[in-house]
Each structure stands twice: as C-alpha cells, then as structure tokens.
Amino acid sequence: MTVTAALSHPTPGGAPFAPAFADDADVRAVDAGSPALEAFVASDTAGRVHVLTVRNATDGDQELHPEALLPDGRGPLLFLGGASTTTERDGRLVAHLAPYGHVRLGRITDELPLTDDATQEQPA
Question: Are 124 and 113 spatial neighbours (Cβ–Cβ below 8 Å)?
C-alpha cells in the first residue's frame, strides 16, 4: 500500500504564523546537530515570522537545542505542534523527540499584535 502525503501546508498555531506557510515563503534546511534529525525553517517574505520543524528519523530518542535554529527575537518560542517534551539545561531549552517524532516551533522576531486565533499557542 502506498500512502501519498498531502502537499498543502496547514497553518498550525493560528493566523500569526500563516505567512511562514505561504507559497512564497522561504524554506531552508538547517543543521539540527545530528544526522538523525531532519530540520527546516520556513520564514515569511518579510523575515518576521519563522517556523522550525524537526523530525527524528530514527528509532531512538533524540534531543536538540531549538532556539539556536531560529532567528533571535523579542517574542517567545512557541509550541505549534508535534510531540516533544522540553527541559532546560545550562540555561538552554532542550527539546526531546521520541522515535520518529517531530516538533514544530515558531517565533515572531518583532512585535506583532496577535489575534484571538493565537490563544491556542503555548510557550515551548
């Protein structure tokens, strides 16, 4: 049986992050620090809205420091979807991914008024 993944991008976390999923968004692979992790960042054309997606491609637990993979910003790093747990080690956020798990985190790099749609977002 062959399963084909949908090619359209959902908009997790509400309207503020929608520009990172637009057809003209800049999507680039990033090094998550381990060959077991597949990571990319999608950014809007203005360079303000960024979404990091990381997938664990192995049957073992993996961890990463996600904040280093997104541009700095005054806004918090927000959990947008997936399945991960986070801890803090030496003052840095550490995301733990289960085998074949993924996480999607977002950051807005400057102040942007959030709409009521943003109430589903939670700090990572």
Answer: no
Number of Cβ within a 10 Å radius of residue 16: 21
Please give the structure tokens belonging to residue 1.
Answer: 């049986």
Residue 73 CB: number of other CB atoms within 10 A?
Answer: 15
pLDDT digits (tens, 9 = 90+) for 14-48: 678 889 999 999 999 999 989 999 999 999 999 99
Can you count the helices (H) and strands (E) in the chain? 0, 9
Percent of the chain with pLDDT over 90: 39
Taken in order 29, 31, 36, 37, the sign of the CA dihedral is negative
